[in-house]
Records
---
Amino acid sequence: MSLPDDIRARLKELWPHARLVPRRAARHLPAGPGSYVLVFSLPEPLTFASGRFRGRTVPAGWYAYAGSARGPGGLRGRVSRHMKKRKKRRWHIDWLTCAREEIFALGFAQESECHLAGALRQAGHASPLPGFGSSDCKDCESHLVFLAPLSAAAGQS
C-alpha cells in the first residue's frame, strides 16, 4: 500500500514545497530543531490501553499528526523514532505509530506544530481525538486529524 493520490494531492496543496519523506529516508531530515507532520495508516481500529485516552478507539484509516522536535537529534531524531514500530511508548502518538502500516513525514524548519495542525484542520479534515498531541496547547483542539478511511482511500492509490 502507498499513500493514496488524493491524500498526497491535499498535502501538496497545503505545503507545495515540502518533500514527503518515506520511512527509510527519515535519516535525510535535518538534525536541527523544527516541526513535522506524520502521515500514516492504521490497518485496523486501535483502542488505547492506558493513559488519558484509555478505552478510546481510533478507527482504521489514514491520519496526519503535527509535532515538534526541539531536543537532541532535532527533526531527524524525532521523526526517525516515530517511524520505528518497536519502541518504548512515551507519547500518545507512539500507540498509533506502533500499530501503523504505512508512514511518511514532512519536515519544517520554520513552522510551528500548532500552525501545521491548524492548516490540516482548516483544510476540512475532522479531528478524531480532541486534546490529542495538544495537551500543552491552549489554542488547538487536536494535533491529530483523520484523513480518510482505508476503504475509501484504497481506490485512490
Note: The CA atoms of residues 10 and 123 lie 8 Å apart.
---
Amino acid sequence: MVLTVASLVVLGVVAWQKLTDPEDPYADYCASVEQERAVIGAAVEQGAGSGLIRALPSFERLAAEAPEDIADDWDRVIAGVEHLADELEAAGVDPATYDRDSPPEGLTAAERRRIDAAAAALNDPATNESMKSVQQQALDVCGTPLNL
C-alpha cells in the first residue's frame, strides 16, 4: 500500500513537471494566446478593420512571445494593421466610426484611396496567409482557437 501511494505521488510529480516544463519553447506563447484570445475575439467582432486595430496591442504582446517559426507571420499581420491605423489617423478618421460607403465630411479622395489601399492590403495573399498561419499555430500548438 505504501509503495502504491509513493508510486502515485512520483507519477503525479512527473506529470506535473511535464505540463509545466520550463524547457517547452511554446509555454509562454501559449499562455499569452490563452490570455489574449477573448480580447482579440471581442475586438474583431466590432468589425474587420476597426476590430483589428483594437486588437493591435494584443497582437503585439503575442508577437513578443511568438516562437521563431511564427514570428515573421506576426510581424506581417502587425505591419498591415499598423498601416491601416496610420492611414486612418493621418486622415483624422476614427476607425470605430469610419464607413467607407459614407465617408466623413472633409475626407479627400487621396486620403480615401490610401485608406482603401491599406484595408485591401490586409486581404492580400501574403497577409491573409500570415493570419491563417498564426491562427493555425495557436490551434495546433496551443490547442486554443484564435480568430482574427
Note: The chain has a mean pLDDT of 87.
---
Amino acid sequence: MNWDDIGFLLSKNRYNENSLITEVFTKEHGKISGIIFGGTSKKIKNYLQIGNQLFLNYNSKSENRIGYFKIEILKAYSPIYFDEIRKLNCITSSMNLIKLLTAESQSNERIYDLINEFYLILSHDEWLQKYIFWELKLLGILGYNLDLDKITSKKIINNKIFYVVESSTENKIVPNFLIDRNDKVNDLNNLLDGLKLVSDFMDKSILKPNNIDFPISRNEFINSLK
C-alpha cells in the first residue's frame, strides 16, 4: 500500500532511539498511524510539532501492519504560538480530541476542513468563544450533537435572562452566549463555564461510555486560561 496525502500531526511517541510512532489526520484517508524513521533527528524533529500540517508519503506492506511515513513540512502552525501558551495548549488539546474521538482509517473530509477552520479561529480576538463553538461543531460531525436550543428553558429572574437544563437530579445553567450566539463575551469565567459544560457532556456521553480517560491536555488547556 502506497499513497500520498496531506495531514495534521495529532500525536507522536518515541518508537526507538531514532524513530517515532505518529498519528496524523489526513484529508483523504482520515486518521492514520505510522512510523517516522529518523523522527528524532535534528533535521526532522523541529517539523514534528503537534498541529503542524505535513505532506505525507505512506508505505505499508499490508493493511494489518503499521506502515511508515516520509514527510515534508507544509505549514508550521505551532511555532507561531510558542509565546502564547493558551493558544499553544489549545492546539495540543484540540488535536488530542480528534485523536481520541475519531476512528482509524475512516476518511472524513469535514473533520480535515474543521482543522483548517480551527487555525483561522486562533487569529481572532474572540478566539476562545469561537473555539467553544468549534468543539460543538466537531462533536456534531462525529454524531454527538449537544442541541442546547432544544434542551434548555428560558427563565427571567430579577430582569436577567437565564437558560437552564432541567433534570430530575439537577438544574444546570447554560451560559447565555451558547444560546444567544451573537453575543460577544468579555467575561472569562463565563467562557470557562462554557468549556466546562462541553467537558461534562463529553465525559458523560462519550469518554466514560467508551472507557476513555478525561484528557490531561484538556485540563492543562483549561488551567492555563485561569
Note: The helical segments are 42-45, 85-101, 109-121, 127-141, 148-151, 188-207, 216-225.
---
Amino acid sequence: MKPFWHHLLRGLAILLMVYVGVALIACSWQLASALANERLALLCGIGFLAGLCIFPYFRMTPVYVCGHELTHWLTAKLFMRETGKFSLKMASGQVQVKNPNVWIILSPYILPFHLLVLMGLYGLMLFVIDPMPPLVVRIFAGCLGAAYAYHLVMTFIAIKAGQQDLRFKGPVFSLCIVITGNIVFLFLVLMFATRQWQAATRLFFRQCLTQAGWIVDAVQYVWRLFT
C-alpha cells in the first residue's frame, strides 16, 4: 500500500503545483502591467528577448557550470548539509553533498545564479554611487533581462539533455517543481519591482478563489451531463 499512497500524494502535489502555477502566471501578468518605470521594464524586456536569441548559440558553458555547481553548494549550506569535493571542468562539474534533498538537487534549475549575482552587485553599487547615473541603471536593466534569459535557456538545454538531477524524484515531479519554482521566483521579482507586496498577495488569493470557482463550475457541468 505504501507505493500507492506515495504515488497518490505525488500526484496531488503535481496538481497543486499546476494550480498555483496558473494563479501566479495570471497575477504576474497583472503585476507586470503595473510597473511604474516603463522605460526600465522595456529595457529588461529587450535584454530578455536578446538573450533568448543569443544564448542558444553562445552558451558560455563554463560560466553556466560554475553557477550551477555553486548553487548546489550554497543551497546545501543553507540546508546545513555536509559538502565534500567540489570540481569544475569546461563542460561539467560536481559537488558532493551528503543526504541531498530535492531542493538542493533542483536549485540550479530554479534560482538564476547569474541574475542574483548581478542584483547583488547593483545593490552594492547603490551604496557606493549616489545618485546612480541613469545610463548605468539602464545598462543594468538590460543585463538583468539578459541574465534571466540565460538562466531559462540553459535550464531548457540541461533538461533537454536529460540531466541526472531530474531523475532524483522522477522526471515529471521534478519538472513540475522546476517550472513552478521559476514561476514563483518571477512573481517575487515582480512584487519587489512594483513594491505591491500586500496588493500582490491579495491578488494571488483572489485568483486562487476564482480558479476554485472554475473547477466547481466544471464539475457541476460534467455532473449534469451524466445525471
Note: The longest helix spans residues 2-32.
